[in-house]
Amino acid sequence: MDFELQWLLIGLPAVFALGWMASRLDLRQLKRERDDSPRAYFKGLNLLLNEKQDQAIDAFIEAVQNDPDTTELHFALGNLFRRRGEFERAVRVHQHLLDRADIKRADRDRAQLALAQDYMKAGLFDRAEAAWRALQGTPFDGESQLALLSLYERSRDWAQAAEVAQRLQQQGAGAFKDRIAHYACELAEQADAQGDTAAADAALQRAREAAPAAARPAVLAGQRLRKRGDHAGALRAWDELRTRSPSAFLLVAADYAASAQACGRADEAQVTLSQALEGTPAIELLQALEQVDGSDAPHRLPRLLAHLKAHPSLSAAQLLFSLAPGEWTEDARTALREAVARAARPLQRYRCAACGFEAQHYFWQCPGCLSWDSYPPQKIDAL
Q: Same domain, yes or no, for 340 and 302?
C-alpha cells in the first residue's frame, strides 16, 4: 500500500506537468497560425491598396489556405477575381462558400449575391437570373428585383419586366408606372407585328391604365389608327397628346400633317400647327406646316424668315432653299448667311495629329497630350 501511494504521489505531478506542456504547445501553435493568417491578410490588403492585384491575390490565397474557415477572406478573394475578369475563379470561390454547411445565414446570402454578380459580369444571364431569384425573401430582395428588371429589359422580356416592376411598385421601392407603360407598349407593338390586334389593344389599354399621363401610349394609339386608315381618329389621339405633352407632339408632327391632308382637314391642321409653333418653335412643327401649306402659300417666306432669324439652324436654312431663288429677298439672303455661319462655326477647329484633341484655337503645344507642333495650321470643317 505504501509503495502504490508513493507512485501515485510521484505520477500525479508528472501527469500534470505533461498536460501543462502539451497545452502550451497547442497554444503556441494556435497563436502561430493566427499570427500567420492576419499577416498574410494585411500583406494582401497593402498590395491591393498599391494596385498590385496579382500579388494581392497570391497573398489572399495564402491567407485562405492558412485559415479556410475565414469567410471574409473568401469574399475578398472572389471580389478580386471578379474585378480582374476571372469570373470562373470568382464563381468557384463563392460557390465554395455556398456549399459549406457551417456558414451563417447572413454570409450565405452574401455569397449568393456575389455569385449572381459573377454571372452577370460573365454574361451568363440564365444562371444570373436563377441566382437573383434565389435572393427573394432575403435582405437583398430589393437589389435582386432591380437586377432582374434590368436583366429582363436587356433580354427584351417585357412581360417578365412588367411583372417585376409591378412587384417593386407594390413594395414601395419607387415609381415604376412609366416603365410599366413602356413595357405594355412594347408588347402592343410585338402583338401588332404578329397580327394579333386584340392582344395589341389589350396591351395598349394596360399602358394607359398604368400611366394615364404618359406620352407613348397616345403616340402609339394614333400611329395604329393611322395605319388602319382612321386618320380622324389619329388626329384626335394626337390632339390629346399635344394638349398634354407639347414636346412629345413633335414626334408625330409630320404624321399629323399627313393624316390631316388625308382626311381633308389641312386648314384646321394649319391653324393647330401654327399655334403649336408659337408655343414651341421647333423645326419639326415648321416642317409639318410646310407640308400642309403647299408650295404656293404666300406666308411661307415670312414665316421661314422669322424662324430663321430667331432660331438659326441648317434645318431651317434647308427649308428656305426649297423656295425658288427668285422669291428670296435681301432679308432672306442675310438670314441664310447668318444661319450657315453659326452652324459652321463649331465645325471650324484644329485637330492634334498625335492624339486627336480638337480646339477652336491654335496651340503650339497640345493641351491633351502635351506634344509640340502637333497641330496642323489648317482648320478642319467636316463632321
A: yes
